[in-house]
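Might you be able to review the protein record set out just below?
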Amino acid sequence: MVIVMKTSGKICVYFVLLATAILMSWMCCGIIQMLAGIFTLFLAAYGMLRASLFWRELERAQKLPVESPEMKEYFQRSANPVLHWVGWALQTSAHGLESKYSAKVEDRQSKINSLQSQINPHFLYNTLECIRSEAVCQGCDSIAKMAKALASFFRYSISRNEDVVTVQDELNNIQHYIMIQNYRFEDKFRFRVETEDKLAYACLIPKMTLQPIVENAIFHGLETKQGECHVIIRIRVTGRLVLIMVSDNGIGMDEAQLQKLREGMERGRRKDGDVSAHGNGIALYNVNQRLKLLFGESYGLHVYSMEGEGTDVEIQMPVRTGREQV
C-alpha cells in the first residue's frame, strides 16, 4: 500500500479556506448564524486535527514491513479504531498472498514428484517378468508366483491412471501383498474377506487405502506374535455408509499407546518426529486425510485396540459407485 500526500500543508489550506468562508458569513448574518459558524469552526478544527494525526500515524506505518512484529504492535498500540482496522486488513491480505504462494509452490513440487515417480516404471515390470520367466524355465514355481505377485502389486501402486478405485480392486491388491509377505514369513498369515453385500465390491475408495492398514497390522501387530496370525477384512453397507473393518489378532495396544496413535493420526507428524507409539501413525494419518479430502470431514478412520487381543481399524465412507459422484 502506498499513500502519497503531504498532510500538514493540505490540511492547513483546507482549514484556512473554511475559516475564511465562515468569517465572511458572519459579516452578513445575525448572532444565531454567528454562533452556528463558531460551532462549525470548532468541529472543523477538531476534525482537521484528528485527520492530521491519523495521516501522520499512517505515514509512519508505511515505513514498516507489512508482516513485521513492529507493524503489528504499532497498529495495536494506536488509539485510532480506523488504524486497528487498517492493520487487520493489511495482515489478512499478507496472509492470503502468502497462502496462495505456498499453495503454488506445493503444487509445483507435487508435479515434480509425480514426474519423478513415473520415470520408466516399466523397467521394473519388465525386470520382474524376466525373473518370472526364468523361474518358470528352471521349474521354480514359488519364485515365479512371487515375481508375478510383486509385479502386479507394483503395477497397481505405481500406476497413476486413477486415484479412486473399487473396493474389489483394493482387495485384489491386498491378495498380492499378503502373498508376498507369506513368502517372506513362511505362510505365517491367514487372510480372508467377509461380506454379505455384493454392492460393497463396487463402491469407490481412494487407491492404496487398505494396503497401509494391512501393512501396519502385519509389522506392528502380528510380526512378533507366536502362533496363527489372522488378518480379516469385514465389509458392511448400512444405508448410505460403507463400513470396512480391518482386524488382526496381534499384540494390540494399551490405552496410552492407542491414545497416542489416535492423536498422531489426527495431527500427523509432530515437531519431534514422533507420530505414534508404534511408529505407524503417519501411514494412518495419510489414509485418514485422503478419505476426508475426498468424501468430507465426517468420514475417515477409527482405531480400536486391546493389549494382547488385537487391533481393529474401521474405515467409514459414503456409498459411491459412480465416478461422477466422487
Q: What stands out?
A: The chain has two domains: 7-98, 188-325. Confidence is low (pLDDT under 50) at residues 1-7, 269-279. The longest helix spans residues 81-117. The longest strand covers residues 229-238.
